[in-house]
Amino acid sequence: MQRAQEAMKTSDGSLLGDPGRRPLRKKEGVKWQRPRLTRQALMRCCLVKWILSSAAPQGSDSSDSELELSAVRHQPEGLDQLQAQTKFTKKELQSLYRGFKNECPTGLVDEDTFKLIYSQFFPQGDATTYAHFLFNAFDADGNGSIRFEDFVVGLSILLRGTVHEKLKWAFNLYDINKDGYITKEEMLAIMKSIYDMMGRHTYPVLREDAPREHVERFFQKMDRNHDGVVTMDEFLETCQKDENIMSSMQLFENVI
């Protein structure tokens, strides 16, 4: 009984329903802070780990770093422009591109690659559905592939963006059909995909209906006019006023 209660507490208030971490509470005296731009924080991101594991050694040809390779089918924008668009340093962009080039010689990432990445990092669960949703959130134009520019701009928001930027990106993730609203069904689909990916071997152990209860609590807070959907404004306003939700933004990178 006590473990079930703990499980409910763990899933309550977390933006992504992270089953392995408890949201920070006011009584713990910890306030949400914008993450510092550290390599340690960067390396907790699955997508960054995947890219940097394939990055060439530091002594490789520096011409690769300038993002002007003619060998790839899709040539990315210039390094200076990407540095202006993101919050990555020049060296970080160079490393990210070297790894991206090695893994994706065409200059594009497809959905199958995302599924492979997350199956490797979360072998204890089924990451297929979550990888599908995450890919669609990165695939801004919906053409079935992600360019390096889109990839690093998305990562920059998720890892180093402002609160407002991260919440807008999270809304886009939940808004599966991209109609500008989040329904209970959409939020439940995302929540279930995260629980499935994390696997059943989490502590505290979560009950099967934990994702649905999580969504019900969310909608009670967010759906201000009780019309059955959550708008961007409702989402942003509710999240920024809720300390549990804001604390969970620190955990966002754990499943990205």
TrEMBL record:
Pfam families in the cross-refs: EF-hand_7, EF-hand_8
Record domain EF-hand: where: 126-161, 162-197, 210-245
Annotated SMART domains: EFh
PROSITE patterns assigned: EF_HAND_1, EF_HAND_2
GO terms, molecular function: calcium ion binding; DNA-binding transcription repressor activity, RNA polymerase II-specific; potassium channel activity; potassium channel regulator activity; RNA polymerase II cis-regulatory region sequence-specific DNA binding
Keywords: Calcium, Cell membrane, Ion channel, Ion transport, Membrane, Metal-binding, Potassium, Potassium channel, Potassium transport, Repeat, Transport, Voltage-gated channel
Presence of keyword Cell membrane: yes
Superkingdom: Eukaryota
Subcellular location: Cell membrane
Stored SUPFAM superfamilies: EF-hand
GO biological process, one term: regulation of potassium ion transmembrane transport
GO cellular component, one term: voltage-gated potassium channel complex
Region described as Disordered: spans on this chain: 1-32
InterPro entries (UniProt xref): EF-hand-dom_pair, EF_Hand_1_Ca_BS, EF_hand_dom, Recoverin
Family stated for the protein in its record: Belongs to the recoverin family.
Protein name: Potassium voltage-gated channel interacting protein 3
Organism lineage string: Eukaryota, Metazoa, Chordata, Craniata, Vertebrata
